[in-house]
């Protein structure tokens, strides 16, 4: 065995002692990390992953079609005429799609600060829905706390440091002004 890799002796271990590379091991991506900036001069900033709008729309339409199919199944069990089934299904589909559009407009209004948005629990596989809900929640929180959209974390400290630097540069000029004021005050009889 070289470099202390593998078993010192395969005896009694149930293996042959043959060492091979783990092909399933995934190495971290150094130059293509998803959250790091493309330009190294840029400061790293948190950008949540954007949900795929197409997938979200597809899931909403799929929910509508599931409800339409349930109605169709129920009507077929009741042995209703095929034309009646089609007309009722089309009617329900139009109604649900209109409600879906109205609900999206309501979500847009809610994200504008009008009323709380409904809470919904998501399953593990609903990644895009979860990301969309997280973005909406962050937007509501940002508006509630009156944080501007161009806010950067730590910008207050940077501005404060800039003010201090300007203050130290201005101190020399200000010192000259203070000396002039003191001389005037002494001349006027103030101390």
From TrEMBL:
InterPro entries: CWC21, mRNA_splic_Cwf21_dom
Top-level taxon: Eukaryota
Predominant subcellular localization, coarse grouping: nucleus
A Gene Ontology term for the protein's cellular component: spliceosomal complex
SMART domains: cwf21
Keyword Nucleus: yes
GO annotation, biological process: mRNA processing; RNA splicing
Domain CWF21: residue ranges: 56-101
Region (Disordered): 1-60, 99-126, 147-191
Comp. bias (Polar residues): 1-19
Composition bias, Basic and acidic residues: 40-60, 99-110
Sequence intervals crossing the membrane: none
Record's subcellular location: Nucleus
Keywords: mRNA processing, mRNA splicing, Nucleus, Spliceosome
Family of the protein in this entry: Belongs to the CWC21 family.
Stated name of the protein: Cwf21 domain-containing protein
